[in-house]
Design goal:
The chain is of the alpha/beta class and about 325 residues long. It is built from 12 helices and 12 strands.
């Protein structure tokens, strides 16, 4: 791939001149513009959006607070936030809170003291008064994915209830006649909504029982443990909807260890759409959130609030998609 130095050499100008032309941040005479433009076309040079951001006069800092960086959903989300931030001239700081309120408050205090421009929260451990205090200080906030404690903030979330209903209906369409749900922590609004989606469909059938609901913590180990508990209660279950992909991966592991064939004996569906679902054998069917779109939207909205000193607060609920693979 051509570099900015290649363009400068072909045009017979300095790298700084090419940079001024690309970023429109200084004077370039008409003849030089023509040479640079011609060189870009000949070399098919594609300026990096990240480089344009880094070339700006000032890099503002925004913070993305995540609950668990070990869950692949969150690095995928963070990557999308980072791409937008860098292209707009902002530096992103990642904060892993481990779902601990005190740890989040320590991050907020430290970053606020150092004049962070704004926060994106993908956690659920802060209280309403914590967010209110930040808002009163004039610091822009966007809440992403999990939090339900966000009055008067912009909130971005996938349609989790619809995802739950899609998962159960898909398993029914595949011939399942007794479907269990491994649900996430009910303190997290997204986990509650996915459970509600499951119940909305499952409660219409005579096979439904509250004992088909097995708790998990969004981690692989809880999926493994849930399968053991589930099969002790319901050895005839033939479908499982896991409340996120990590628990689905754990459930798959637990089923394989017990010699149960997936999907021939038990079909399995997860939720999130992380890349790891393509790496299992069999590959996992999942309800995919628009992870990249959510991250990019959060960054754009936050930067809009920073640069306009406020802006409208809205709730954004993005659509989900069933991705059918070998596990069903």
């Amino acid at each position: 791939m051509a570099t900015i130095r290649d363009v400068a050499a072909l045009a017979g100008v300095s790298v700084a001149t090419v940079s001024r032309f690309i970023n429109r941040n200084g004077y370039v005479n008409k003849e030089t513009e023509r040479k640079v433009k011609q060189a870009i076309e000949v070399l098919n040079y594609q300026p990096s959006s990240i480089a344009r951001g880094l070339a700006g006069k000032r890099m503002e800092v925004v913070a993305l607070v995540l609950p668990d960086i070990s869950n692949p959903f969150f690095p995928e989300l963070a990557r999308a936030v980072e791409d937008i931030c860098l292209s707009r001239g902002y530096t992103l700081i990642l904060c892993n809170s481990d779902n601990e309120r005190e740890k989040e408050l320590a991050y907020i205090k430290s970053l606020h003291r150092n004049s962070v421009a704004g926060f994106i929260f993908a956690t659920d451990s802060l209280l309403q008064e914590d967010l209110q205090e930040l808002r009163q200080s004039g610091t822009p906030i966007v809440v992403l994915d999990r939090s339900g404690n966000a009055d008067n903030c912009s909130i971005i979330r996938a349609d989790n209830r619809k995802g739950g209903t899609l998962a159960v209906q898909h398993l029914l369409d595949k011939g399942c006649r007794k479907i269990a749900h491994i649900y996430g922590p009910q303190s997290i609004v997204t986990a509650r909504e996915r459970l509600e989606g499951y119940e909305q469909v499952a409660q219409q059938y005579s096979w439904y029982s509250p004992s088909l609901l097995i708790p998990g913590n969004f981690r692989v180990e809880s999926g493994i443990e849930a399968v053991q508990s589930l099969l002790e209660r319901h050895p005839d279950v033939d479908g499982i909807f896991a409340g996120n992909d990590m628990m689905a991966i754990g459930a798959l592991k637990g089923l394989i260890r017990r010699g149960i064939r997936v999907p021939e004996q038990i079909a399995l569906c997860g939720f999130d759409g992380i890349g790891m679902t393509r790496m299992t054998e069999p590959e996992l069917t999942t309800i995919a959130q628009p992870i990249a779109e959510m991250g990019k939207m959060a960054a754009e909205i936050l930067i809009g609030k920073i640069e306009s000193n406020g802006g409208e607060n809205r709730f954004y609920e993005l659509d989900v998609q069933l991705i059918e693979r070998s596990s069903t």
